[in-house]
Amino acid sequence: MKNNITISDYSKLLGHLYEGHIEEHPYSNFLASLREIMELNFAAINLREPIGSDGGLMFISSDLLQKTYINPHDHPYIDRYYTSNLMPNLPWGEVVTLDGVTSYNSLESSDLYKICMEPMDLYHMAGIDLRNANGQRFTVRICRPKTAPNFNTEERQFFGELGSHIQRAVATGMQLIQLDTERRLYAKTISGKSIGIITLDEQGKVLNCNLAADEIIANKDGISLVNQQIYANNPSARSKLNGYIQEIIAAQRAGNLPPVNALSVERSSNMPDYEILIKPLAIERIVESVQTPHMMIFINAPEKKNEIDIRMLMSLYNLTRAEAMLARHLAAGESLGDSANLLGIARNTARAQLRAIFSKTGVTQQSMLVSLILKSLATFH
């Protein structure tokens, strides 16, 4: 191992480790630094073992190979490593060296050594098995060439102490990746809503708008954006809106429970008033940043009807296309007669289709059908 490892060396190593999950090739800088400090020619983190057609997930750093393997079986080390693994299922959190598991004579006669290790000059091996955020096993393996010394007590101790950091970093990294995935999914979901959604910061300034809110603001039909703040053209509505926002800000700063408020905003186009809901968000002060949303504003334009996907209705309730089209008109507020006229079908045909819809959806009244479809729309839209 490298002599006289400094605090700076160790700090750099841990920095690479805890930032490893955000790299293009995860943990590559950490593995490279570990190889330098411990004088290795190979280091690998295997997060998921190959099972069946799943090639697993492994991060490798070596003199001859620097790669992230995900799923495809494109290298003999991946394809055959686990069929001839000489160090499987090690005791949790304990560093084990290869010579503690098998003799070097057995190693040199094994398929693993001949096929995978010898061509890469891998001979001395140490490993540690750890748990990820879900409690599942993942492994870390390090190697040296045959001409190098085996791992001594001090090096095994260093590797073992590093193991607790590796376990913590991988668990945290997996959780952050999962949270980021959920955040992206949520952002994508709300961006498609027909209701305008705006998030405000602790000063009441706009942080983000979904597509519907962007459209409402761009139209300047009673609501606009001035100095990064929501502006209602009507003086009375503007006073109420600003008052509600300031009320939430004051309550949050005082640590009190902020109220939820609603108002209507008159539009210059004489279209129905916007319906606005101002909802405070729970704030975790210990992780708060200047970009933390403190409240959300929901803006509904009553004249906008939610678009109901015909294919969604057909898939959810096993409706025919004709039945789904009728159901969509009914959910949009049309009467059975008006729906029949719009679809160009006889009323008796519409009644027969409605009976079939009732049978397939399990409802017995038209109002129940409308409620069911709108609830489905709220879930899947």
Automatic annotation (TrEMBL):
<dbReference type="GO" id="GO:0003677">
    <property type="term" value="F:DNA binding"/>
</dbReference>
<feature type="domain" description="HTH luxR-type">
    <location>
        <begin position="316"/>
        <end position="373"/>
    </location>
</feature>
<dbReference type="GO" id="GO:0006355">
    <property type="term" value="P:regulation of DNA-templated transcription"/>
</dbReference>
<protein>
    <submittedName>
        <fullName>Helix-turn-helix transcriptional regulator</fullName>
    </submittedName>
</protein>
<dbReference type="InterPro" id="IPR016032">
    <property type="entry name" value="Sig_transdc_resp-reg_C-effctor"/>
</dbReference>
<dbReference type="InterPro" id="IPR036388">
    <property type="entry name" value="WH-like_DNA-bd_sf"/>
</dbReference>
<dbReference type="InterPro" id="IPR000792">
    <property type="entry name" value="Tscrpt_reg_LuxR_C"/>
</dbReference>
